[in-house]
Amino acid sequence: xxxxxxxLLSEMRTKLDGQLATLESAxxxxxxxxxxxxxxxxxxxxxxxxxxxxxGIAALVAFxxxxxxxxxxxxxxxxxxxxxxDGWIEYAKKQFDFVKGQLGQEHPDPSATGDLGAAELxxxxxxxxxxxxxxxxxxxxxxxxxxxVSAAAVVAQMICWGVAxxx
Length: 167
Hints:
This protein has helices at about 5-45, 55-75, 85-105, 115-130, 135-165. By secondary structure, it is mainly alpha-helical. The protein has one domain.
């Protein structure tokens, strides 16, 4: 079992990995939906027997409505990947210098060595790290909503093309 700081960092990494995996999974699914949407439009549109009609136009509208959130999902998104990274780099430099200075002494400060030092580090880090990943939740909710809109639009497009081709 690791020190409190190692456990905290491990938990942070797990949450971040989960959020990034969620985003990548949504991107993969929406890329498939976008591809399927294009194939549906290509296959059904070439089999129209006459004028495109209202149902064909509805199918094209569904294609566009599904494509807009899909393209947005595939684009870059600003997410918080680490809390106060610049501050922690500076803190780590100061902590390293402090520990290095204590190692040469006959009776080093207990906070510079062992579990006590790690516990103090975790105590300082905890307030800024406790809920940092929640900053990413709104963007992930929008990504999932966009994915649902794209999926519904593909289904609507297929139905509209089917009706248009049957006429």
